[in-house]
Automatic annotation (TrEMBL):
It holds the Pfam family Glyco_hydro_65m. Residues 13-265 form the Glycoside hydrolase family 65 N-terminal domain. One of its GO terms (biological process) is carbohydrate metabolic process. Substrate binds at W357, D358, K601, Q602. Belongs to the glycosyl hydrolase 65 family. Residues 322-689 form the Glycoside hydrolase family 65 central catalytic domain. Residues 698-759 form the Glycoside hydrolase family 65 C-terminal domain. One of its GO terms (molecular function) is hydrolase activity, hydrolyzing O-glycosyl compounds. This is Family 65 glycosyl hydrolase.
Length: 774
């Protein structure tokens, strides 16, 4: 754990330069706009420890699988988000000396992420040879207004000397991924050109053939009038730059405004990439840095209106939650159904930038409540578009008749995870995809989604489950063998309660959806039935039979659902009995020891109780919580949020808050010592859930919003905005009351502890809840 980020409600601040923290800060201060992302690498040369990262959404490389022993059915490759051409690079040379924070003395270093306006600022004084002091101020952002672009303003002031300075703004495609399996470079050069003030590289990925054109254009100005300078275009392998030589006098400030564009063949035909890139550069160049930044701040203001959480009385908590919301909004904007949310977003290489079940299980609630419905709908359509591949994936594993198994990890619909116990066995991910459809419809009321897209996905998934179970003569029940549940510290188990539960629910929901579409859109139903070759008279009764006779392991003795068959055979010790020196288990214990132990990585049975809470009474949820939580090591960042929400539901405010604290500043304080690999983007959505679903107890039931709030003792109040069915509602939780303020025109009925409050458009309602709270 680190504690070097200064607390501020709207800013992330680092003061002083510590090279050991640099990779962590590169992650924390990352920028993105849903289309491209950029770690907080330095513009000028840096020869110290760094993880370079410029990422272009949707552009990946299929890196050939590397495993010890090949197993039939393994995916051929692991898809990786690519470190793409570097557009920030701006070399600085003072006389013969290269500006490099690794080789000079750095003073007054300050890095600030301005979350309100959406830009990064860095300033420092470099002490160079002979005591020369050079002051640097850089500002940059990835534009959320024009999402293929970014801009940098980079200023230099020699404080006690005058000199000839060479400034070399560049685009550099000679980059690599640190996680490359075979130490290859993934990009080939297709085209490059440099001119005065301009550089362009067009790069093509090996194997996948994605092309990305990265260009830059820049201006030079001085605070002492028009500067005189010489300029020289430069090209090299995968490199285009324009070198400026300028004489800068003591105290004079020279500023380079560098405008960059990243255009990908995903959005343009290859042959126009260069010309479109130049047009884009001209457009932003003529707009200018200040105007672009103003527009950026205005666009962020709107994002904050939709998604901010305001916490009064605890600045560290405020900073933590805003940081999470900021990063989520930087990662996914919902404009393009081909894109999704990688567990590390655009902030590192780990997890390959690929899509996991995290999206459906953890991110969907955030985007549902803070963005228009189309944003989440696009996340669902992403999976719809991958249905064919999911059917192929299942077919490869021996399933038939349109059964669909969605991948655990994917870029394009193909499975690319390559640990057998996950690839073949962590099949519960299929359930989360169906659950997200249900959740989306519950929240938005958009039932038409079923006829348009959802039904086909649900049927494919239900078909898979119906073939994945088998009848046990011994149990006289359907069982599901050889699976890995959400708790990846168990593999190849039989009858994982969560998987059996969600599988059975999926089949029931598919039947319900079929019946609904048949009633609501009979023609479309006929069309779909024939498209899917669906045999109503065979398949529906078969699914019903399975769900009516599914086996769910339970323990009468403990009154709990059993995570899997045989769970009680394990030595029943608790996390509190573990030696701290053994934590985290995944770094200290052999894998077999983990598998044999009782310890749970993340919510498993409890994940099911969270998803399907309405089916279970509070006593059941409590018994399971009290049984499983003490056995859970929470070694996935996705774990604490579910526990926080359940603790809140059970009225255990203290534990709800303690669990929340584990994720709220997970990356800012580098709790798990892994922030340098990138930020935990998907668990950030979980943190949001802990506040809104946990502390505020928000649920959607029967087309209405319900709250069962409490205020953590450390806070004076908290409030947030919710988009719900054309209403924008601000909900403010005080110690004993809720203020519901309807910021839209549409009237809305809101329930607080089960009591209905009508909130007319534009009006505010004050609900004293202290008296109903039990
Ligand atoms: C978790 C998975 C998750 C993945 C990516 C793993 O550590 O166990 O549930 O999907 O990380 O976030």
């Amino acid at each position: 754990m680190k504690n070097y980020i200064k607390v501020d409600e709207w800013k992330i601040i680092e003061e002083g330069f510590d090279p050991h923290l640099n990779k962590i800060s590169e992650s924390i201060f990352s920028l993105g706009n849903g289309r491209m992302g950029q770690r907080a690498n330095f513009e000028e040369t840096y020869t110290g420890e760094s993880l370079q990262g410029n990422y272009v959404a949707g552009v990946y490389y299929p890196d050939k699988t590397r495993v010890g022993w090949w197993k039939n059915g393994y995916p051929e490759y692991f898809a990786k988000v690519l470190n793409a051409a570097n557009w920030i690079e701006t070399g600085i040379r003072i006389g013969e000396e290269i500006l490099d924070l690794n080789s000079c003395t750095v003073r007054e270093f300050r890095r600030v992420l301005h979350m309100k306006e959406g830009y990064l600022e860095r300033s420092f004084v470099a002490e160079l040879s002979g005591g020369k002091q050079l002051k640097v101020l850089s500002k940059r952002f990835c534009s959320i207004v024009d999402d293929e672009t970014g801009a940098i303003s980079y200023s230099l002031t020699p404080m006690n000397f005058s000199a000839g300075i060479k400034i070399t703004p560049a685009v550099n495609g000679d980059v690599k991924n640190q996680d490359s399996n075979y130490d290859e470079k993934f990009w080939d050069e297709v085209h490059k050109e440099a001119d005065d003030h301009l550089g362009i590289v067009l790069m093509r990925t090996k194997k996948t053939g994605f092309e990305v054109c990265t260009g830059m254009k820049f201006s030079i100005s001085s605070d002492r009038g028009e500067p005189e300078y010489q300029i020289r275009p430069l090209t090299g392998e995968k490199y285009a730059a324009s070198e400026v030589t300028v004489h800068v006098s003591e105290g004079e400030t020279i500023t380079v405004c560098k405008y960059a564009a990243n255009l990908s063949s995903e959005n343009y035909p290859s042959e126009v990439l260069v010309s479109e890139c130049k047009k884009t550069l001209d457009r932003i160049y003529s707009k200018g840095f200040d105007k672009m930044l103003q527009e950026q701040a205005a666009a962020w203001e709107l994002k904050w209106q939709e998604s901010d959480i305001v916490i009064e009385g605890d600045a560290a908590a405020q900073q933590g939650i805003r940081f999470n919301i900021f990063q989520l909004n930087q990662t996914y904007t919902g404009e393009d159904a081909r894109l999704n949310i990688g567990p590390k977003g655009f902030t590192g290489e780990k997890y390959g930038g690929s899509t996991y079940w995290d999206t459906e299980a953890y991110c969907v609630p955030f985007y549902l409540a803070t963005a228009p419905p189309e944003v989440t709908r696009n996340l669902l359509i992403y999976r719809y578009k991958h249905l064919e591949k999911a059917i192929e994936n299942a077919a490869k594993l021996g399933f038939k008749n349109g059964a669909a198994l969605y991948p655990m990890v994917t870029m394009n619909g193909e499975e690319c995870h390559n640990e057998w116990e996950i690839t073949f066995e962590e099949i519960h991910r299929n359930g989360a995809i169906a659950y997200a459809i249900w959740n989306y419809i519950r929240y938005t009321g958009d039932k038409d989604y079923l006829a348009a897209y959802g039904l086909e996905v649900l049927v494919g998934i239900a078909r898979f489950w119906s073939q994945r179970v088998n009848w046990s003569e011994e149990k006289h029940k359907y069982v599901m063998l050889g699976v890995t549940g959400p708790n990846e510290y168990e593999n190849n188990v039989n009858n994982n309660w969560y998987t059996n539960t969600i599988a059975s629910w999926c089949m029931d929901y598919a039947v319900e959806a079929l019946e609904y579409v048949k009633r609501a859109s009979p023609e479309r139903y006929e069309e779909l039935i024939s498209k899917m070759a669906f045999d109503e008279s065979e398949e529906i009764p078969a699914w019903r039979h399975i769900t009516a006779n599914m086996y769910f392991p339970e323990s009468a003795e403990y009154g709990v659902f059993l995570q899997q068959d045989g769970f009680l055979d394990k030595e029943q010790v608790l996390v509190k009995d573990l030696d701290q020196a053994d934590r985290p288990l995944n770094q200290k214990w052999s894998w077999d020891r983990i598998l044999r132990s009782v310890f749970i990585k993340q919510a498993d049975v409890l994940q099911g109780l969270y998803f399907f809470e309405d089916r279970y009474d509070e006593a059941t949820i409590r018994r399971n919580f009290d049984f499983y939580e003490p056995r859970t090591v929470h070694e996935s960042s996705l774990s604490p949020c579910v526990h926080s929400i359940l603790a809140a539901k059970l009225g255990d405010e203290k534990r709800a808050y303690d669990f929340y604290l584990r994720t709220s500043r997970l990356d800012l304080d580098d709790y798990n010592n892994d922030t340098e690999d990138g930020l935990h983007i998907t668990s950030m959505a979980g943190t949001w859930m802990s506040v809104v679903e946990g502390f505020a107890g928000m649920r959607v039931k029967n087309d209405a919003l319900h709250f069962r709030p409490f205020l953590p003792g450390q806070w004076t109040s908290f409030s947030f905005n919710i988009l719900f069915r054309e209403s924008i509602l601000n909900v403010k939780i005080n110690r004993d009351s809720v203020v519901l303020s309807n910021q839209s025109k549409k009237n809305v009925t809101v329930y607080v502890f089960g009591n209905a409050f009508e909130v007319a458009g534009g009006k505010e309602v004050f609900a004293e809840y202290g008296k109903y709270q039990v």
